[in-house]
Amino acid sequence: MNQTSQTLLDTVEIETGPAPEWTVLWLHGLGADGNDFAPLVPNLVRKDWPALRFVFPHAPPRAVTINNGMRMRAWYDIRDMNLANRADEAGVEESIVQVEALIAREAERGMPASRVLLVGFSQGGAITLAAGMRRTTPLAGLVALSTYIPMAERLLATLPAVGAAATQPVFMAHGQFDPVVPYQAGDMGARQLRTLGFDVDWHAYPMAHQVCDQQVRDLGDWLTRRFTTG
């Protein structure tokens, strides 16, 4: 796909029918790319749903410190495994700008923010939460899988009045045996969001750093409610 601006990322797109009524913008995890979750679409989509446009962007390649500086697709550098210092702030900020550019492109294509769902797994989920918490125009919902709030203390300390952002419903899911992003980090993120006034639908599964069939079904139920009430 051609880029229409310097900040617009290349994407993989799947439309489930003509004239899509909703957009699902899905951010992959570290080292993957936009193709990672595309195969999930047939298992997730239900026959009674409206036509959807799935947009799977590719994060830009960057050096990742914990992987000996190896370049790979990443939404931000991971400096160490300590969650408080894991994400580099500049990378997070850059990725938020890139995600906002994709949301703006959806508006140009006739898809208002109220019909855009922002989804992310692991690193992508961290960007989903960081971007969603700052929104002044609410999205249709946020989905954060196997992830945490990056730079949580700094973000929460500098966050302006949440206001409209807290009207965005949130689906969060985490593996109880996750060796990459500890379960406690995801649970803490959900509790922090609830403190800010977000309606968080939290799910825990007996799995590692992954997606399971029950999680896909639960997410499908949650999405059905979004499409019905939207």
TrEMBL record:
The keyword Transcription does not apply. Residues 20-223 form the Phospholipase/carboxylesterase/thioesterase domain. Pfam families: Abhydrolase_2. InterPro entries: AB_hydrolase_fold, LYPA1-2/EST-like, PLipase/COase/thioEstase. The keyword Cytoplasm does not apply. Keywords: Hydrolase. One of its GO terms (molecular function) is hydrolase activity. It comes from the Bacteria. Belongs to the AB hydrolase superfamily. AB hydrolase 2 family. PANTHER family: LYSOPHOSPHOLIPASE-LIKE PROTEIN 1 (PTHR10655:SF17), LYSOPHOSPHOLIPASE-RELATED (PTHR10655). This is Carboxylesterase.
